[in-house]
Amino acid sequence: MPFAFAAEYVIDKVLVYAVTLLLIWAFVDCAFRRADAFVAIGTLQKAIWLLIVGFAALIMVWQSLLARPQMGFLSWIAAFVAAFYLLEIRRGLREAIEGPW
Predict the structure, then answer these.
(1) 33 confidence band (pLDDT: 50, 70, 90)
(2) Residues of the domain holding 62
(3) What 3-state class would DSSP assign to 42?
(4) What digits encode the pLDDT tens for the residues 56-75?
(5) Among candidate residues 24, 56, 60, 30, the one with its CA nearest the CA of residue 45
(6) How many separate domains does the chain show?
(7) HEC letters along 62-74
(8) Which long-range contacts (CB under 8 A, 24 or more apart) does 50-54 make?
């Protein structure tokens, strides 16, 4: 049984750190994108996306600084925010700025 707890601890720790890095990447990417590109793809404004991604990143940084980091409810929501921004919004922004090809 102790091995199962150790494995769960390692998996939680890796997930928390991975999601934290993804959210920091998403925040930096969002900060360097042009504001008019957000309007061009018909999504929320740049400032709102910065707030959403930044708040999710703060949640994950706080979670990673705990003595026992674990993926809780807010952590899974933050992971969804990172995935949605990086897979949907970022792709749309790149196509709006650089073209589809």
Answers:
(1) very high
(2) 2-98
(3) coil
(4) 999 999 999 988 888 999 99
(5) 30
(6) 1
(7) HHHHCCCCCCCHH
(8) 52/81, 52/85, 53/23, 53/26, 53/27, 53/81, 53/82, 53/85, 54/27
